[in-house]
Amino acid sequence: MTKQKKLGKKLKEFSFETRYKSTNEYKEKLLGMFKAYVKAIIMFGSITRGEQHGKSDVDIYMIFDDTKLPLKKFEEIRDKITNDMYKVARTVDPRLHPQPVIALTEFWDGMRKSNPVFYTLTRDGYAVYDAGFFIPMRKMLEQGKFPGTKESAYLRMESVPKRIVRVRDVKKLMIAEDLYYAVLDAAQAILMYVGVGQPAPGQCADELRKHLVNEKLLDEKYAKIMEDIYAFRKRIEYKEHVGEVSGKDVDEWIKKVQDYVDTMTKLLTRLENIKKIDDINTNYEIMLKASITALKTMNKLPKDPKELPIAFKKHLIETGKISPNYADIFDKVMAMKKRTGDKNIDDITEKDVYMNKEYVRRFIHELRSALQKPHDEPGRFAAEQKMEEAKELVKTAKEIEKLPENGKVEKKKRGKK
User: What's the rounded Cα separation, in Å, for the pair 276 and 279?
Assistant: First the structure.
């Protein structure tokens, strides 16, 4: 190994060690604040993949056990907890980048509904603190035990090429078994991804027509291949097929099924991009409509739509009605929308799309709160913003302190107050 490579390796190790040390210090502070309500604290990003460089941030996720709180209590303090996470991180290391707090029930629901960010976090994240549920979740994910998830779909798809290779080396009649399951598994993988329950083999062709062919996502010939291979396999199973299967027949089936599998693999990627674009467009529409509504309410809506970004910053950001951070979020949402027509849509990660969705949700909440308040002088709101943040930090700490250590809600005694 050259001196330059050795030096690069040492610098990379040092980069990891310093960030890991800061993350552990940050973890201890979070545990000190939120006590028994933390289920997991997770490092995520380039550092967990060994791809970090000198300027790399460390994404930090905290999963908060909202089941120990009274109903709706967590939603009341969600943003306060996230803000406290940001403030504490700044006192530890500017390279720490905490993400919005995740409720335990939200995490479970996201895993159940195939949320790509939660799956990526579970697969690639590194838990610096785990109360005993994060690692089991990862094991289940690796084993493809979440039906309807991308992981289980790809796990099923991975077995397809092996079946095609095997059929070339076994007896000719094995085509009825191996190629049949290659076609069936590929069909079920795609149907699972679009949210259709795993159909019975005899219904697969009809389900492909209903959900893919009729939606112009798949050519009819692939539904016909599914239908034909199912019928062929049944004839073999019931010994209704007369004579040997010729080498020519085997080659024809292999050619058809290889084309079928290649098409289904490309379709899986295409469906993933369609979902990604839908989410990007939804983020864009929500933020745009909310901004227009707010400016219109304030009688500040510009006549020229091109001036909307300027009006957004001037009347919502500079007046102190909402956090300055939303100027960057606004720009990111607009920029991501412009890229939906690009061929390199794959470069936009599902994590970025999801985080924009979360930031837009928080933007709507903050904007609604700002517009419902009495119209203070802009100067007063901006001048007192820092003081209000300090008060909120103390208030959140007090509310957390009042929460029962064991997660149970104590009932007030009747009579005496």
Answer: 5
User: Measuring CA to CA, which residue among 20, 15, 17, 27 is closest to residue 89?
Assistant: 27
pLDDT of 315 reads 94
CB 39 within 8 A of CB 134: yes
Task: Name residues whose C-beta falls within 8 Å of residue 46's C-beta, 6 or more positions apart in sequence.
Answer: 52, 53, 56
What DSSP designation does 100 have? Answer: P
Q: 3-state class of 62 per DSSP?
A: strand
Per-residue pLDDT at 379: 47
Q: Determine the Cα–Cα distance for residues 302 and 305; give it in Å rounded to an integer.
A: 7
Blockwise average pLDDT, block size 10, the chain, 417 residues: 57 77 95 93 84 76 93 86 91 90 91 79 91 90 72 69 56 71 92 86 94 96 95 78 70 91 93 91 94 93 92 93 92 91 79 90 90 56 54 57 48 43
61 near 121, Cβ under 8 Å?
A: yes
What is the pLDDT at residue 41?
97
Give 260's contacts (C-beta < 8 A, 6+ positions apart): 182, 183, 186, 222, 225, 226
Task: Please tell me the chain's helix, strand, coil percentages from 3-state DSSP, rounded to the nearest 5.
Answer: 70, 5, 25
Residue 372 in contact with residue 364, Cβ under 8 Å? no
How far, CA to CA in Å, does 18 sit from each of 29, 57, 89, 281?
17, 12, 15, 39
Q: What does the pLDDT read at residue 168?
A: 46
410, two tokens: 């104590």
- CA dist 88 → 81, 92, 103, 316 (Å): 11, 7, 19, 27
Query: For the stretch 203-224, what's the b/e string if a residue is b when 16 or more beta carbons lie within 10 angstroms of its beta carbon?
Result: ebbebbbebbbeeeebeeebbe
- Reference 63, options 101, 118, 113; nearest CA is 101
Structure token pair of residue 31? 């545990």
CB atoms within 10 A of CB 82: 20
Buried b (16+ CB within 10 A) or exposed e, 34-45: beebbbbbbbbb
